[in-house]
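quick q for whoever's on today - can somebody do inverse folding on this one?? i tried earlier but teh output was garbage lol. tokens:
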């Protein structure tokens, strides 16, 4: 049975580690879990001295959870002396002081010494005692060092597999220079200050609409605190794109582009034609009317507007830079980037002379105020949007006026 963390597609560690010697283990389950702990940390050489229930043991196989490579190579011995005969460095693990004049070390120090010893081509081993009472004095006397763990002195007895795991962990950690098996996946490129500023300006604008930044005397402090929340995050460009989408979705309410509004694409196109032909522009002082028209247009996008908006939000070149059907004075361009002073107009097929004249008037008005206007045919958006996105990207990078 393979554990949930076992990946058969990856190569096993081929490091040479110390020999693990279990003295008269009683339960097959303990042998199996010890083998599993060894497999976790790259230890492969397991020796058993007189296992109580004999060998092989089906309970050990089940408890090993896939550490078959350890169990299949088990060596069986009749005495401890035979099991440690080839070891030139031997540790005896014990929680009890055996009153023997030999060094007592922790697993960290033992691991460092073991690594250096094995590099010379010699063999190192670690003795583990019986489940009930551990190692006898005569067995501890065979070891060069005593290894013990910093545990609660009033409750110091460890399960056999736990003791093996602690030793294996310290050895493997040092043998692999503390290398972790994986790291955090690479994120997208970190967001630029320009992108963060554009997002924050948009966030503040939406917060102002709901009068969140109150009272006025605390506004500046609240803005500083809000900005620090995002700068501490060190967000990526994708993070900013997602956050911008969240803000816009909340601001647009239930009838945003994801819900499709109340009109289908064809009806939304006719709505725009009617607004243009019957004086859709408001007077300079009628800001409420302009905002109402903009909100209605946002809630009822044409097919081309929906497609272009989805790409503007998803494409990293434009993420967070454009707004959809947002008033600029008394006009409502289809898309606008205030930081870049760019307006995008979608040209629907079969537009009347009145609509063409209205668009030309809007273009002239915007250009007088420093906006660059890019006209894109709606049919080109629905047929193949990539070239149009490239045109917009060039306009962003070059600063040259768009063709109308």
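ok took a stab at it. sequence:
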């Amino acid at each position: 049975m393979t554990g949930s963390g076992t990946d058969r597609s990856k190569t096993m560690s081929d490091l040479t580690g110390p020999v693990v010697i279990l003295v008269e283990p009683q339960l097959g389950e303990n042998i199996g879990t010890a083998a599993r702990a060894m497999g976790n940390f790259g230890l492969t050489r397991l020796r058993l001295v007189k296992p109580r229930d004999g060998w092989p043991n089906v309970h050990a196989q089940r408890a090993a959870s896939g550490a078959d490579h350890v169990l299949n190579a088990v060596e069986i011995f009749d005495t401890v002396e035979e099991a440690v005969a080839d070891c030139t460095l031997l540790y005896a693990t014990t929680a009890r002081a055996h009153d023997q004049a030999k060094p007592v070390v922790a697993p960290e120090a033992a691991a460092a010494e073991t690594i250096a010893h094995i590099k010379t081509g010699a063999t190192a081993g670690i003795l583990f005692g019986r489940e009930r009472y551990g190692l006898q004095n005569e067995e501890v006397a065979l070891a060069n060092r005593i290894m013990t763990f910093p545990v609660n002195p009033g409750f110091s007895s460890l399960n056999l597999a736990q003791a093996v795991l602690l030793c294996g962990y310290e050895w493997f950690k040092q043998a692999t220079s503390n290398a972790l098996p994986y790291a955090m996946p690479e994120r997208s490129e970190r967001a630029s200050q320009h992108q963060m500023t554009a997002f924050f300006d948009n966030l503040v604008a939406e917060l102002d609409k709901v009068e969140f930044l109150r009272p006025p005397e605390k506004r500046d402090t609240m803005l500083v605190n809000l900005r620090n929340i995002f700068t501490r995050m060190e967000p990526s460009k994708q993070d900013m794109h997602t956050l911008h989408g969240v803000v816009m979705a909340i601001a647009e309410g239930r009838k945003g582009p994801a819900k499709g509004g109340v009109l289908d694409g064809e009806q939304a196109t006719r709505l725009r034609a009617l607004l243009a032909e019957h004086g859709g522009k408001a007077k300079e002082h009628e800001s409420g009317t302009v905002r109402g028209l903009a909100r209605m247009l946002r809630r009822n996008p044409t097919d081309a507007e929906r497609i272009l908006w989805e790409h503007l939000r998803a494409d990293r070149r434009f993420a967070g830079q454009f707004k959809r059907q947002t008033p600029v004075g008394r006009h409502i361009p289809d898309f606008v980037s205030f930081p870049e002073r760019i307006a995008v107009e979608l040209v629907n097929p079969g537009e009347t002379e009145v609509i063409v004249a209205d668009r030309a008037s809007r273009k002239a008005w915007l250009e007088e105020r420093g906006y660059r206007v890019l006209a894109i045919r709606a049919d080109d958006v629905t047929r193949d949007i990539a070239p149009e996105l490239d045109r917009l990207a060039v306009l962003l990078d070059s600063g040259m006026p768009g063709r109308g």
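fwiw The chain has three domains: 19-175, 184-249, 256-398. also The first strand starts at residue 19 and ends at 23. so keep that in mind when u check it
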